[in-house]
Amino acid sequence: MNDATGVANSTDGARISVYEDDIQYTNYESAGKQIFNVGTNGGTNAMNIDANGVVSMPKQPAFRGEGFAAGVASNGTTGYNASNSHYKVRTIELNNGNHFDNTNGIFTCPTAGLYYCYNEFSRSTDNWVGVQLIQNTTAIHLMWFRVSSRTNAEYDVRELQSVVSCAANDKLYFTYANGYTAPANNNYTRMTIFKIA
After folding, report:
1. CA-CA distances (angstroms) from residue 73 to 19, 106, 174?
2. Domain residue extents for the chain
3. Rounded mean pLDDT of the chain?
4. What does pTM read for this prediction?
5. Sign of CA dihedral 89, 90, 94, 98
6. Topology (CATH) of 62-195
């Protein structure tokens, strides 16, 4: 059933509710912002637009972590490849929506859309390091590099980044080639995945 209603409110201004398939979508103004809620009884705040046109989406899926922690071989979790292990983080700094699971290093996409994926990694010994981005069991992006053996080589970081089109429940994760040197476990490495559209 589709139904639209408008209710005057002396503190918030016009409040508009639309019912579609028994889900209530509500839009109203509060303190100079347009508020968009989804669901009944006030619902969940899905989006805000302030007087300057700045959009915020409090429920937007986002993850950021710091450091490197070795994970299990990816053939045991997703069926990808036994020669690659999951790249996990030492510290989770942000996990909006709890879509990242650090027990296996996997980010599960809650909805279809475009996701930005970023991994900054380093190594302090003279050897090859291979890191790649995987979607389910498909390699999306691969990077190899050999670190210099000079002093302070751990400052030589590399960045792997990509935008991936995902379906709901797709798995995004980074792996490293476990037959070579693992990435360094230091403060100069980061992993980030978030939905952009």
Report:
1. 47, 12, 12
2. 2-56, 62-195
3. 82
4. 0.80
5. positive
6. Jelly Rolls (2.60.120)
